[in-house]
Design goal:
Structural class: mainly alpha
Number of strands: 0
Radius of gyration: 21 Å
Distance between the termini: 40 Å
């Protein structure tokens, strides 16, 4: 009885979260005002590609580090519909929706429960879309994470070197969308090293050829200012801040995402070590998401990879821990599932509580709850 009620509750809560995300996304996508400097830079780079101009030129000041991936994808749409901000936002929005679907598919496959899948996908949207960044904001992280997640899926659910090569292709593509993909490429390297030497060699060679060769070609194509724009400038601008990293760890990992974080830590006590086997690849994906968050220079860069990856790894870890506890004498399997469902509902509530109050007020005004 309780299990069925919780399943329905999670389903309704997840659908409401998705509907809320779509409301904000549709409301903001047509705005012509850039909400972040990266948006203006993305549109400018894509417009230069369409017009055949030099994409990277000498910077006039502090400019965002833009890799050419998202502008290149937007290029085809801008040729059709013109250089409008909504075009680049549309690409990011579609990438974020697809990313939520991929995370849901990962959780559904690993846990065998589409209720968990629906909850995880909705957490990606409510967390990434409303807390990590404005829904549909023209930033590269969503597209990068989509490519990374697909790469990890290919390595997880295929055998032999073909899967490793395909995974390396997607991770290489992710790198040219956003540099943070390098962290995930390193995490996949460790996972491959522990799983199979043959797959590791195939992965490393493919990744090295594509990233190294692709970077050399882009340097030749775009000129010396490409190197400055995507690496030299951002590296010089990096500033270590113990306070910011402490806030990320305490405020986000142990605060907003604390339920997932604690559950992942508890999974280390299981007899079946979570870092072994093909399923252990999700743990390395989670570890690199945290490292990417610690190294990020802005809040949205830090939050988005962490929210997305922990929504999958945290849910998978919840099921592993509760199944282990349910295996003890006198324990009930259904009771363990109720715990997972309740924990997912609590995590959704915590994320919703972390969303700025002005966004909830704007939603309430739109649907007539307040004047």
């Amino acid at each position: 009885m309780a299990q069925g009620i919780l399943r329905v509750f999670i389903g309704v809560l997840s659908l409401l979260a998705v509907a809320t995300f779509l409301f904000f996304a549709m409301r903001d996508i047509e705005s012509d005002n850039a909400a972040h400097p990266t948006e203006a830079a993305m549109l400018e780079h894509a417009e230069r590609m369409v017009e055949g101009k030099q994409v990277y030129s000498e910077p006039m000041g502090a400019e965002p580090a833009i890799m050419p991936g998202l502008p290149a994808v937007s290029y085809f749409l801008i040729r059709e519909w013109g250089a409008h901000l909504w075009v680049v936002r549309f690409v990011s929005l579609v990438a974020l929706l697809l990313l939520a679907g991929v995370i849901g598919a990962i959780v559904g496959t690993e846990c065998g429960s589409w209720t968990y899948a629906l909850a995880s996908g909705s957490i990606v949207l409510i967390g990434a879309g409303l807390l990590g960044m404005i829904p549909g904001l023209a930033r590269p992280e969503a597209l990068m994470l989509l490519l990374v997640a697909l790469g990890f899926m290919l390595m997880r659910y295929t055998e032999g070197i073909i899967g490793a090569i395909l995974g390396a292709i997607f991770l290489s593509a992710g790198f040219f969308v956003d540099q943070q993909a390098a962290w995930f490429a390193a995490g996949a390297y460790v996972a491959m090293a522990l799983e199979s030497r043959r797959r590791l060699v195939a992965y490393a060679v493919t990744l090295g050829v594509l990233v190294g060769g692709g970077y050399a070609y882009l340097s030749y194509l775009f000129g010396p200012w490409f190197n400055f724009a995507v690496f030299d400038g951002p590296l010089h601008a990096l500033r270590y801040s113990a306070g910011e990293e402490l806030r990320f760890l305490s405020g986000h990992l142990l605060g907003t995402l604390g339920i997932f974080t604690i559950t992942i830590l508890l999974s280390f006590a299981l007899h079946a070590r979570p870092w072994y086997g093909k399923g252990g690849i999700w743990l390395y994906m989670g570890a690199t998401a945290v490292l990417a968050g610690l190294s990020a220079t802005t809040a949205s860069q830090a939050l988005l990879p962490t929210i997305v990856v922990l929504s999958a790894l945290g849910t998978i870890s919840m099921q592993r821990v509760t199944r282990h506890l349910a295996a003890w004498g006198g324990s009930e399997k259904h009771g363990g599932e109720c715990v997972v469902l309740a924990a997912l509902a609590l995590q959704i509530f915590v994320l919703c509580a972390s969303v700025p109050a002005d966004r909830w007020m704007s939603l309430a005004r739109t649907i007539g709850l307040v004047a």
